Each structure stands twice: as C-alpha cells, then as structure tokens.
Amino acid sequence: MSADVKGLEPPSTESKKSFDVREFLFRHRDHVPIPFAVGTLVGMWFYHPDLAEGRPWAVYATIAASLVCILAGEGLRIWSVGHSGRTTRAKELKAPALATGGPYAVVRNPIYVGNFLLGLGYVLLTRIHWVVAAYVVFFFIQYTLIVNIEEEFLEGKFGDDYREYRKRVKRFLPNLARLGSSGTPGATCAASVMFSAINQELKRCQ
Q: What is the Cα gyration radius of the chain?
C-alpha cells in the first residue's frame, strides 16, 4: 500500500551542530555577566552587610585593595592586548600565531586574569562578603568553560608547540619567575597596536 503525502520531505542527512555552552559563553563573554550583575544589585538591595562596619580602617584598606586590583587588572589587559593583537576581541576562535612571550610567558590567559582582577576591584568596593564570593565562583565557572574550548582549538592548530607551552605555563596562576622569558608574540607588537588597545579600553569606559 502506498500513500501520497504532500509536503513530506525526507530527513536531512546533514546533522545539525549540537549546542555547546562553551562556545556560547565564548561568543557572548562580554554580555554573560550582565544578568549576574543585575541579580547581584537586586540582592544587595535586600541584604547588604558591611564587612567594614564599626572598623573605619577596614574601609580604607578595602579601597586601597580595590584600586590595586583595578589598576593591575587594566594594566595587564592593555599589556596583553598590545602583545597579542586585536584577535583577542574576536567572536570567532582564531589565532594567527601562538603567543608565548610577554605576559603569556607568565600565565596562559593574562587577559582573563586581568578581567578577574579588574572585576574583583569593583566588587571589593561593595564590602559585601557574599557578593565577593559569588563573583569569584561565577568567574571561575564561566572562564573555565571558555578556556576549555579555546585550548581545544589551540591544541588542534598548533599541536606539540601548544602542548609544550601548556606544560611550562599555568592556565590562571601567574609564575612571576618567568617574567621576561623569551617567547613569541601572537601578533605585531608595534606601538600602534598598543595605542589601539588603550583606545579600545577608553571606548569601553565611555
């Protein structure tokens, strides 16, 4: 028995690409923290214990620590972008060369470490313990997933060179003893690239 079914097409033989949360977080890494930030602000409205309450010295200590984190984080970001080039802002996974010198000789993900320090500086200004803890946990989960997919890409493209680099340098924990070690830039390290990185950061603050 046969039946004439109009509009019925055979299933496509091409398998659709499955959703990868790591890729989603990578593409939207600039926007993913926004819901977290909004939720944190709402939570602060209802519960905002001050870690420095009754301890004036703690206020100044917190402000000083915040400024150190903010300046260190932004400085590390500018240094890293100036060393590796503009591809660090791309929404697609790409790397014209494997960056292993400059800040990349100290830690494999200096821009993300800079992001952490920068965010931690602002979060410390709240002087609310649960906000600081939530930020650290959220950052660790988000960027561990992002770095995981980036490392898969880099290993696939650079092979043994990247595997050797990964053995020498930690993912997030800087090794200051390696500061000044020889390595290769990921892109042209001309002054124009550095000024471009600074200009990008200034635009982000406007």
A: 22
